[in-house]
Design goal:
811 residues, Alpha-Beta Plaits, elongated
């Protein structure tokens, strides 16, 4: 005797055994999928679900073995080398030292509910650290633990009814073309049906027939029914599929009322056509069905075109790298595929060619165009020992570079990864809008039901038309589009300017910033320090103390280290970095210390009574042993030419400007006086900076921190928004919310201005979407909005939001 599955009720295959103990009884299941679902229900403490359910649960969607096998191929390490990045994780709380990241292209998404469902289910997989989808491009960003198999996420997406696979620009382009062609085909079918139906309906609307023309009216209605059938069965199919997916997820999407409106209107009109004698009093709505689908498809097509345009913008950086490159092998040039270039290779870049990897110039000099990477339109000179970024174009002479990082690990690759990560994450505003749209759909359905009941009891002749109008006119498409289209446009515009958003909340935080705090060296100043004066102490020569200092600074990435360049420097061992204070190490068996006055005072027995004479505009660095102060170095720096204008612009918009620096008081005061900044704090340790920011935040202030050093990492992490300069270390950039890719500080002021503009446009979009729906809903409920006008108005509402957001594409 056959046995049925405890979960879904289907027959259990002969010989299959999958069981669980539920409420003291052994329950059998037809497959491991049903068993897994039941286990989740039990783990969540919801075993009473089986006692109170009124119907059997649905069976989880199962994939064919060959489809699963195909998706498992993406776990191959060799294949993953092409599209997966391994990222170090700085987390002392866990033993996890690295994670893996990649971008995925998702097909089958039609609305915010699809995104919500995918994000919820994939983020629940054990081993997935984060999964998020960009609403505008349908491009996903996923990060996972090394023990997790990427194919599990792809399989989960497929079970939900979506196709997910590693993002590749050429494949995304082909998919976009295919999507566009299918959309045009669906629009064409709906458009032809709309025109034909209107041709038969307009004479009725204009009163050109009377009740005596019943045969002609009947003929026109039968023809209209058949003409509308392809619209219902083909053109509107994406709406039904999206509605089913959202209902499975127990979430109301905008496709639910759309699908109900189309199906109910068509079935009711067909029933009237088939069962009643055609008269002028018996209404059918085939023309409204076709017109509604047509307008909605046109609106989504325009939205899709905008999305593809944004996708093209994001792909621009992917296309910067050449497919082939020339490396030197035993002194002879050899052409290779770019992704085979390895660290240490000598890469030859001719005039007009693009660097295929990061590297340092070892031979020759030239000018490079870095506009696509940094937004800097003037060419940059590159000489020996200078750094060349992958994706930059050589516009003058042939040079050779030693590869420091292949394309996959290059600065360009990091930027592309950060862009994908930022655009896939959702800011608070978008999450609120998506949730509001879901509640609004529920309001529409309740209002529609109430309207239908009222008109059925009072004037049943108009119940279908009015109910249909209520369903159609209030579709919250515009509300769901209000935020993502604006954010995507703003992000693309700022990237072209040279300002990279690495986190999702940047624009929102910038638009409401109360305080902007700058580090001094390398931020307000150019960070190109030079030694203005050396004062040897304790009888040492300038050459000797400079050699020791250079040895200590050789492995340091702080801007101060760049000032020390001495050919006679010896090597240092046992180097130790004292964050925010200085560095120490052993040179020829003696331990030396190099750093601020406060640091040296702590480690040496000498006092500072004999040390004086530095200019107020200079920064001071001291060299000592554990017994004596050996030298004082006076360092000079140059103020960035755009610093004054930037500070003035930020202050004008209402932000309070601060300088928070570890430098000497006199040097900081000199810069503050030139820039007219009243709030300054000098000689600050990382702990002091952290306490200063926390004190501002305790007062309810929103704080933005702009810095460039590793010693700024704690305060950058504490600030509501952290911005790293282009000259900052890679670690600082990766841990910041935004990165200024070039050295133009005035871009920062433009970014703040654009953030305010973005916030304004998002408010306009949301206000329009809510205002339109709230105004049209009562009009539709009292019968003043015909179905065809409801369809047109709903589509135009979405288009207005999309076109308004495109204003953000220009800065």
């Amino acid at each position: 005797m056959s046995q049925n599955c405890f979960h879904c009720g289907e027959t259990i295959p002969l010989g299959f055994h999958a069981q669980l103990q539920i409420k003291g009884q052994l329950a059998a299941f037809c497959c491991y999928g049903c068993q897994a679902v039941a286990q989740v229900i039990l783990d969540d403490g919801l075993e009473n679900f089986y006692s109170h359910r009124t119907a059997l649960a649905s069976k989880p969607l199962e994939l064919a073995d060959d489809e699963i096998t195909q998706l498992r191929l993406y776990d191959d390490p060799l294949l993953q080398e092409e599209f997966v990045q391994t990222v170090s994780v700085d987390d002392t709380q866990t033993s996890q030292q690295s994670s893996r990241q990649t971008s995925l292209s998702i097909s089958g998404i039609t609305c915010a509910a699809c995104i919500w469902l995918l994000e919820r289910e994939i983020n629940r997989l054990d081993g997935v650290l984060s999964f998020s989808i960009n609403h505008s491009t349908h491009k996903a960003f996923i990060e996972w633990e090394p023990s997790f198999q990427l194919s599990n996420a792809l399989i989960q997406a497929r079970k939900l009814g979506y196709q997910a696979k590693p993002y590749r620009h050429h494949e995304a382009k082909v998919a976009a073309i295919r999507e566009k062609r299918m959309a045009i085909f669906r629009i064409a079918v709906a458009g032809i049906a709309t025109m034909q139906n209107m041709m038969f309906s307009i004479p009725l609307y204009l009163g050109m027939y009377n009740d005596a023309d019943t045969q002609l009216i009947g003929l026109f209605r039968w023809v209209s029914m058949f003409m509308a059938a392809p619209v219902v069965l083909f053109s509107a199919l994406p709406f039904y599929l999206a509605a089913i997916r959202s209902l499975r997820a127990k979430k109301l999407s905008m496709d639910v009322p759309v699908s109900i409106a189309i199906i109910v209107a068509y079935l009711a009109s067909s029933f009237t056509t088939i069962t009643t004698v055609p008269t002028l009093e018996s209404d059918v709505y085939f023309d409204s069905v076709a017109m509604f689908a047509f307008f909605l498809l046109v609106g989504r097509f325009v939205e899709m075109q905008t999305r593809h345009h944004f996708l093209t913008d994001d792909a621009d950086m992917d296309q910067l790298l050449p497919e082939t490159a020339t490396i030197m092998v035993n002194g002879k040039p050899q052409s290779v595929v770019s992704h085979r270039i390895a660290s240490g290779d000598i890469l030859r870049i001719k005039q007009g060619e693009v660097a295929a990897a990061d590297g340092v110039v070892v031979s020759g000099s030239s000018l490079f165009d870095e506009a696509a990477l940094t937004g800097e339109f003037l060419p940059v000179a590159k000489n020996e020992h200078d750094f060349v970024s992958a994706g930059t174009a050589n516009i003058e002479n042939t040079i050779e570079i030693r590869v420091s990082a292949p394309a996959k690990s290059s600065r360009l690759s990091s930027i592309v990864r950060l862009i994908g990560q930022a655009q896939s994450a959702k800011p608070r505003t978008q999450t609120m809008a998506d949730n509001l749209a879901s509640y609004f759909v529920a309001l529409v359905l309740v209002s529609c039901t109430a309207t239908g009941v009222y008109w059925f009891l009072n004037d049943s002749k108009h119940v279908l038309a009015i109910t249909l109008s209520v369903l159609v006119v209030t579709c919250p498409c515009a509300l769901s589009l209000a935020t993502p289209t604006a954010l995507t446009g703003a992000t693309a515009a700022l990237r072209k300017l040279g300002f990279l958003l690495a986190k999702n909340h940047v624009l929102e935080a910038m638009s409401r910033a109360d305080d902007v705090i700058f580090d001094k060296t390398g931020t307000l100043t150019q960070g190109k320090l030079s030694i203005a004066h050396i004062e040897p102490l304790s009888g040492q020569s300038e050459e000797h103390v400079l050699g020791i200092a250079t040895a200590l600074e050789r492995e340091t990435h702080h801007p101060i280290a760049r000032a020390f360049d001495c050919s006679v420097a010896t090597s240092a061992s046992n180097l130790q970095h004292h964050t925010g204070q200085g560095v120490s190490g052993e040179v020829e068996g003696t331990r030396y210390f190099l750093g601020s006055a406060r640091f040296i005072e702590q480690v040496t027995k000498d006092g500072f009574s004999s040390v004086s004479g530095a200019k107020e505009s200079h920064s001071q660095v001291f060299l000592s042993s554990d017994q004596h102060i050996l030298a004082r170095f006076d360092l000079s720096d140059t103020l960035r030419p755009e610093a004054a204008e930037t500070v003035r612009a930020l202050a004008k918009r209402g932000s309070t400007i601060h300088i928070l620096s570890g430098d000497q008081q006199s040097a900081v005061e000199n810069i503050a006086e030139k820039l007219r900044i009243a709030h300054i704090n000098a000689e600050q340790s990382p702990e002091d900076k952290l306490a200063y920011v926390k004190a501002l935040q305790d007062k309810g202030r929103s704080v933005v921190m702009v810095g460039d050093g590793i010693n700024d990492l704690p305060v950058l992490a504490q600030a509501d928004l952290s911005i790293a300069m282009g000259s900052a270390s890679d670690l600082t950039k990766l841990n910041s919310d935004a990165v200024l890719l070039n050295e133009h500080l005035d871009v920062l002021a433009k970014a703040f201005e654009h953030a305010s503009k973005t916030r304004k446009i998002i408010k306009e979009n949301i206000a329009w979407a809510l205002g339109y729906n709230l105004c049209m809903l009562p009009l539709a409920m009292i019968g003043l909005v015909p179905p065809y006008f409801a369809a047109l108005g709903m589509s135009l509402s979405s288009l207005i939001v999309v076109f308004n957001s495109t204003r953000l594409r220009s800065t």
